[in-house]
Amino acid sequence: MNPAPPTTVPLRPGRSWRDIPQEVGADALSGKGRRRQILAWGKFGATGALAAALGWGGYAVIHSLETDRAVLAGAGRSEIVREISLITDGTLTKSWVTQVLALPPNSNLMVLDLPALRGRLLAQGQVRVVVLTRSFPDRLVVTLQERVPVARVQVEDGAGRPRQLVVAKDGVVYDGLNYDTPLLASLPWLDGLKLARQGEGYAPVAGMEAVADLLNTARVQAPHLYRGWIIVSLARLAGHDEIVVKSQDIPEIVFTRRQEFFRQLAQLDYVVDAARSQPEAALTQVNLALGSQVAVQFDRPADRFKQTNPTIILQPQRKPKRDL
């Protein structure tokens, strides 16, 4: 008996054996494939664990550096502080710095609380900027930038005795240590202000930047005028933007902070020169707060101006810088 011929299944045009669904479950994977999958998952898990360990280790190190100074002391090659070096642009001394820092005996350089020590120095008004640096193995370097005094002010101490303080450009009031006597004597006195207590000292004086600008401009550009200035009043500064100066020759000179101080000093220099030609009539007031005009008052009428009123309005020409 002849066998039946094979049945032929016709294929649709455009299809092949690749179109037949081939679903292979996990059970169909070979042993080698399963090992590769387990190894891949193991590597991923190990990488994650390593990253977590590194992160925690970094946090622990930073936390230890910030909080446990004893660990730092043991890890570093620092020793007991044997020297304090001072670098300053002013007049403060190494002995003064040592006294203010007041380091305990046998202080380890690495254990020093630098922010706290910096605060002690900044609490002294004469100090404007402080930088503390450890110089291994046993030296602390202190770098200071000091304030510069521009005026003096007189107060009373607890016993009612007069006490001289100095004021810087930013209004800070402080003792002023180790300044030369001629320097202090050249500073004008401040008047027309009320100092307010702040901690163990005084609150900064408002408006001192404008006052310092006037004083520095006069000292540099018109020293012959500045040398005679005795008192600078701030009484009209807040309300009228005016600074009143009393000099040896003129009882009242009014400046305004709304205009350039150099221009006002040039006007003042012109008026002073003009008044010298009339010695019988002394200047009692020069008001420079009127812009291009200058109000000048004499103790009696000046003949050269042909006026009967002792108050005279001038329009001085602005002097060039070289003439001041």
Overview of the structural elements:
The protein has 324 residues and is of the alpha+beta class. Among the domains are: 74-146, Ubiquitin-like (UB roll); 199-323, no CATH class. The protein has nine helices and 15 strands. It has helices spanning 31-67, 69-75, 94-101, 114-122, 181-186, 208-221, 223-226, 237-240, 261-276; strands at 83-88, 127-135, 139-146, 149-156, 162-168, 173-174, 189-191, 197-198, 201-202, 229-233, 242-247, 252-256, 283-287, 294-298, 311-314. It has a seven-stranded mixed sheet. Strands 1-3-2 form a three-stranded mixed sheet, covered by helices on one side. Strand 5 and strand 6 (173-174) form a beta hairpin. The longest helix is centred in the N-terminal third of the chain and has 37 residues, at 31-67. The N and C termini lie far apart (140 Å). The mean pLDDT is 83.
The fraction of residues in strands falls at 15-25%
**Strand order in the sheet with the most strands:** 7-10-11-12-13-14-15
Radius of gyration: 41 Å
User: How confident overall, as mean pLDDT?
Assistant: 83
Largest sheet properties: 7 strands, mixed
Q: Which key terms come to mind for this protein?
A:
324 residues; alpha+beta; Ubiquitin-like (UB roll); seven-stranded mixed sheet; three-stranded mixed sheet; elongated
